[in-house]
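Ticket 4471: requesting a sanity check on a complex prediction with nicotinamide-adenine-dinucleotide. Repro inputs:
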Amino acid sequence: MKILVTGGAGFIGSHFAERIIKTRPEDQVLMLDSLTYAGNLDNILPEVWNSPRFFFWHGSILDRTVVERLVAQSDAVVHFAAETHVDNSIHNYNTDDFVDTDVKGTQILLDAIRHNGVDRYIHISTSEVYGTALAHLMDEDHPLNPRSPYASAKCGGDRLVYSYVCTFQIPALIVRPFNNYGPRQHVEKLIPHVITQCLQDKSFQLHGTGKSSRDWLYVDDHVDALIMMLDAPIDKLKGEVINLATGIDTDIYTIALGILKLLGKPESLINWVADRPGQVDCHRGTCEKANRLLGWHPKTVFNEGLWKTVSWYEQNTEWWSRLRRKVMASGPLEELVAPSKKLNG
Ligand SMILES: NC(=O)c1ccc[n+]([C@@H]2O[C@H](COP(=O)([O-])OP(=O)(O)OC[C@H]3O[C@@H](n4cnc5c(N)ncnc54)[C@H](O)[C@@H]3O)[C@@H](O)[C@H]2O)c1
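Returned structure tokens:
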């Protein structure tokens, strides 16, 4: 199978590509990534990069010509590329990047799939489309109440996919993962931010009362589900929306305390600030459908996943220090990206 992976230089996509290259010798990965501040070639391990079954195209999902060309060569598409940071969608001067990439980019990809055909399209949406939980456990029929511009843009992409299944019968399924965490997540996100601040003995901010909670999914469990989605009969999955959740939520104060404890740091590093506008108070999902359709259930309990994540950041200081320098640097992107034999070659 030749699998087009968009946004594969980011956090989750890089884990997915790594799994494909390491465990599925019959499969190839065709990666498309525009290497925004969140895309990082360091996320692609040498054994992946150097594999003859791995190809990288440095380009944007918004480039219709490139997308058409790559889709035409692919059997399956897994679409991760997105602007993903809720805070940026709140604090940036405008939300153009979110609407452009998460909605328009998805539409360009969908049109390419519609015209060129693929065997399956796995769309990575997000549980953020649900907003604050109205039920104890949110299932796939929970109302869509996205509360941030990020969540709204993802919701637009999610519903576009659904419409292309209904209108053009494309073989797509929509995945709604809850909050992911694990190695190689950008330091802007809560768990890596707290860990890397603690490792530097620097304070970190917590919003509101610290009681807003999320359902935390370890990245390897997410990848397990995607692999099952690649292998399951498409007739069983076409048009379905599938949550990836653990059914357990943990609030941000508890997480901060857990990280402080693992790293032996004082609680005084917490700097309390006002709540985030558009905050989602509680987020907890059921994975009953993923279990029924795929036999999937998450394997990693939160304390174990948190320990693995903290250990990874402890052991990979160079990775996150470089990322911090990159985010803070003001030079043109080209100077910041490692030169590569594969870039558009
Ligand atoms: N991280 C989570 O907790 C989480 C939870 C649910 C859903 N998701 C979804 O999973 C997907 C991956 O999330 P992530 O955390 O790995 O994100 P990330 O921010 O780490 O990576 C996003 C990647 O997309 C690339 N990209 C951005 N704009 C692009 C464009 N126009 N063209 C091509 N590439 C572009 C970036 O360079 C980056 O490599 C996203 O669609 C996100 O909405 C993430």
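Notes from triage: The CA atoms of residues 17 and 146 lie 29 Å apart. Leaving this open until the requester confirms.
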